[in-house]
């Protein structure tokens, strides 16, 4: 069978670290980093007799995530123990949720070739993170750091509704953007605060049964997810094409060799012996509680996008890109509010600023200039203080210094020449020294005007007001 005859089926289990100040069952800080084992207490170190108390903020954040992804919120929920042995898990069980998750039956919408597609969510539940093992710095054995133990997580489980690598990428980006908008997680993938277990299988097109899946654990970059899926899909097709069978197994993606390795197969699939945690009370949520969170949900990416289309008359592409990142769209709105020119702000963000961010490999939240300064730059162009050509030089400087554009312009002597007398002088000089072009223009070659304007620009080092130049040349050569 050809590759095109296979359908790809993907489902994601996404873990997001919640940005609460304290851990899920104690008051230790959740802050990333810190000396090993300094953000710990008897509860998160699993001292005998230490009792957990559920952090209410964790429930609130999870409910917010559930409402923002169209989930049903359970009025009646609980915490369960998931038992397994691993050195980064001091209690030998993780407190998670089993049969009564906080949120169920939601969906996230993605755009696929202009069409909307719903990726259904099975559930969102709350749980605690484990500690971290450090294998690298110590020659003999590993050391355990429990700073991360007890950091709150939500796990967002999708139905196997995703059908391609592109859809996986869009789904995860959309989910990330929603979580950022509602401010429940900083979603820093490089710090591991957003990571995904990627489940994938293949089946013959038209078949109604799912194939056997493999699962790639703890993926934390968009690029490696795409690469790993590409590899794994091809591997599965090859196995089937050669008459083999896919084994259900857990895989580890290796970035360096660009292939997956087996971690464990179905035979040693674990029995977690879930049971309700007797140290914690049931979670009962009132209608008012849920209603209140619903009413205080901030604007979501989809509605921002609509507003950009209608209110600011941006193009579909602009609205999509700007609204996809909370940082970018906050920047856009702040700047637009000051200068009143959404189109110009969008242009700068989408072209020149995006280009530099790309070159320097910076994320939207790392734009090194302020919305105020971009607004000022745009106003200076509108007022004719600088040409848009000079503005690009100013922008480049703005990436290097925190100085205001007006200061940069002044320091570099970049103020646009709009003085009629000064421009007239230049125009006359250029006409005198370029008789051939003047003759060409008079003979009907409009292009010659461009050349003359260019010469004048060159002479003024790009500072002459181009509109005035154009006009004066036309008048002088009439
Ligand atoms: P587990 O909790 O053991 O990992 P689940 O049945 O809860 O198993 O499924 C976990 C994830 O795997 C879900 O996101 C689901 O969409 C996905 N999944 C289930 N079956 C398949 C399949 N045949 N192909 C691809 N993904 C699948
Ligand atoms: Mg799984
Ligand atoms: Zn603690």
Annotation keywords:
single chain, 478 residues, alpha+beta, 9-stranded mixed sheet, 3-stranded antiparallel sheet, 15 helices, 16 strands, 39% helix, binds adenosine-5'-diphosphate, binds magnesium ion, binds zinc ion
Structural features, described:
The mean pLDDT is 92. The protein has helices spanning 56-68, 165-181, 222-241, 287-295, 301-310, 316-324, 326-339, 342-359, 371-382, 388-398, 405-412, 420-433, 435-442, 447-459, 466-476; strands spanning 6-17, 72-73, 76-77, 80-83, 93-96, 103-112, 115-128, 132-134, 143-145, 152-158, 194-204, 214-219, 249-254, 259-265, 275-276, 283-284. It is of the alpha+beta class and 478 residues long. Strands 2-6-7-10-1-11-12-13-14 form a nine-stranded mixed beta sheet. The chain has a three-stranded antiparallel beta sheet with strand order 5-4-15, with no helix packed on it. Strands 3-16 form a two-stranded antiparallel ribbon. Helix 14 (447-459) packs across helix 15 (466-476). Strand 8 and strand 9 form a beta hairpin. The structure holds adenosine-5'-diphosphate (ADP), magnesium ion and zinc ion. Residues 13, 197, 215 line the site of magnesium ion. The site of magnesium ion has 3 residues, from loops.
Write the layout of secondary structure elements.
Blueprint: E1 6-17, H1 56-68, E2 72-73, E3 76-77, E4 80-83, E5 93-96, E6 103-112, E7 115-128, E8 132-134, E9 143-145, E10 152-158, H2 165-181, E11 194-204, E12 214-219, H3 222-241, E13 249-254, E14 259-265, E15 275-276, E16 283-284, H4 287-295, H5 301-310, H6 316-324, H7 326-339, H8 342-359, H9 371-382, H10 388-398, H11 405-412, H12 420-433, H13 435-442, H14 447-459, H15 466-476
Parallel strand pairs: 12-13
Antiparallel strand pairs: 1-10, 1-11, 2-6, 3-16, 4-5, 4-15, 6-7, 7-10, 8-9, 11-12, 13-14
Helix pairs in contact: 2-3, 5-6, 7-8, 7-9, 9-10, 12-14, 12-15, 13-14, 14-15
The chain binds adenosine-5'-diphosphate, magnesium ion and zinc ion.
């Amino acid at each position: 069978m050809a590759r095109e005859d296979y359908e790809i089926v993907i489902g994601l289990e996404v873990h997001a670290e919640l940005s609460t100040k304290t851990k899920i069952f104690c008051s230790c800080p959740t802050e990333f980093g810190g000396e090993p084992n300094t953000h710990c207490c008897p509860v998160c170190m699993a001292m005998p007799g230490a009792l957990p108390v559920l952090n209410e903020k964790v429930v609130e954040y999870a409910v917010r995530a559930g409402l923002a992804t169209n989930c049903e919120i359970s009025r009646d929920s609980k915490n369960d123990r998931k038992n397994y042995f691993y050195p980064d898990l001091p209690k030998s069980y993780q407190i998670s949720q089993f049969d009564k998750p906080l949120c169920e039956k939601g969906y996230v919408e993605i755009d696929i070739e202009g069409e909307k597609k719903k990726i259904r969510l099975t559930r969102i539940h709350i749980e605690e993170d484990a500690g971290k093992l450090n294998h690298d710095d110590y020659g003999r054995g590993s050391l355990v750091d429990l700073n991360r133990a007890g950091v709150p997580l939500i796990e967002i489980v999708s139905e196997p509704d995703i059908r391609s690598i592109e859809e996986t990428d869009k789904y995860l980006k959309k989910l990330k953007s929603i979580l950022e908008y509602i401010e429940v997680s900083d979603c820093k993938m490089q710090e591991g605060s957003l990571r995904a277990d990627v489940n994938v299988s293949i089946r013959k097109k038209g078949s109604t049964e799912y194939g056997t899946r493999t699962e790639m654990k703890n993926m934390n970059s968009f690029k490696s997810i795409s690469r790993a899926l590409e590899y794994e899909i091809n591997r599965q097709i090859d196995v089937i094409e050669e008459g083999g069978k896919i084994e259900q197994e857990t895989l580890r993606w290796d970035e360096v060799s660009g292939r997956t390795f087996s971690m464990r197969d179905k035979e040693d699939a674990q029995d977690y012996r879930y049971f309700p945690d007797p140290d914690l009370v049931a979670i009962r949520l009132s209608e008012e509680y849920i209603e209140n969170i619903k009413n205080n949900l901030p604007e979501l990416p989809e509605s921002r996008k609509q507003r950009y289309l209608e209110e600011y008359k941006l193009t579909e592409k602009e609205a999509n890109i700007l609204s996809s990142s909370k940082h970018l769209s906050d920047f856009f709105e702040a700047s637009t509010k000051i200068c009143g020119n959404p189109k110009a702000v969008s242009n700068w963000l989408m072209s020149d600023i995006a280009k530099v961010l790309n070159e320097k490999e910076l994320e939207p939240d790392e734009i090194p200039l302020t919305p105020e300064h971009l607004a000022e730059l745009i106003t200076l162009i509108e007022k004719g203080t600088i040409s848009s050509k000079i503005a690009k030089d100013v922008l480049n400087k703005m990436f290097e210094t925190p100085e205001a554009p007006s200061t940069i312009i002044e320091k570099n002597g970049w103020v646009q020449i709009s003085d009629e007398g000064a421009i007239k002088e230049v125009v006359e000089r250029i006409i005198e020294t370029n008789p051939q072009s003047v003759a060409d223009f008079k003979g009907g070659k409009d292009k010659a005007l461009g050349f003359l304007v260019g010469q004048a620009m060159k002479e003024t080092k790009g500072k002459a007001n181009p509109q005035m130049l154009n006009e004066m040349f036309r008048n002088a050569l009439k």
